[in-house]
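Reading a protein record of the kind used here takes only a little practice. Think of the row as the fold of the chain written in a discrete alphabet. A record is reproduced here so that you can trace the correspondence yourselves:
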Amino acid sequence: MLANNRSDIQLIEGDVALPVHTGRTVYTPSPKWPNGIVPFEFDGPFTDEQKNIIIGAMTTISQNTNNCIRFVSRANNPVWLRIHSGQGCWSYMGKAFSSGKQDLSLQIPGCVHHSVSLHEFLHALGFVHEHTRPDRDTYVRVYYENIESSQSYAFDKFPSNQVNTYNQAYDYGSIMHYRSDAFSINGRPTVKPVLAGYENWEPFMGRGDKMSAQDIQKLKAYYGCP
């Protein structure tokens, strides 16, 4: 993840944007996009191939929610996603503004991948990282001694009243999970599975290329999809 060079935002957990001088959980629970409709526009030198990769992620979300969540080209919408090639891969959490553009950065070329686009769109739809669940210590161990000191806050847990898991079990295969070596200062693991029977999931965490079944169920539940 590249460092952000914008003066108007701060990034928490590596890729979640907040306006400067606000609290860490300011958008949690996150405002939803009304009726599951997310207007968007591309702004920047994306090739047709790159746009198709990003649109493919949008289509995946729509198909997996039976078109309950739809991405539409911006028209006269009061708020829209401006997909641009900023510095790094990041998004706001949920619908963060009442008017104007809401930036989502997919830097060319490193961030223009199906899995990365899915991850950032799910942030934009209102979801936090899986490892920040309030019950995560039952399922993973965080090795703070291996984490870059400036990034240790990225492993903080959310309070139980700020995260709704919709009765879904902890999901090592979530598209929203960190890699086991995220923000490692020495190449050693920063987060590892500890639940008996799931130790072998370490190489797969944060490396999936699609939403898990639980990602889909939580997304549908949050937006009231049938």
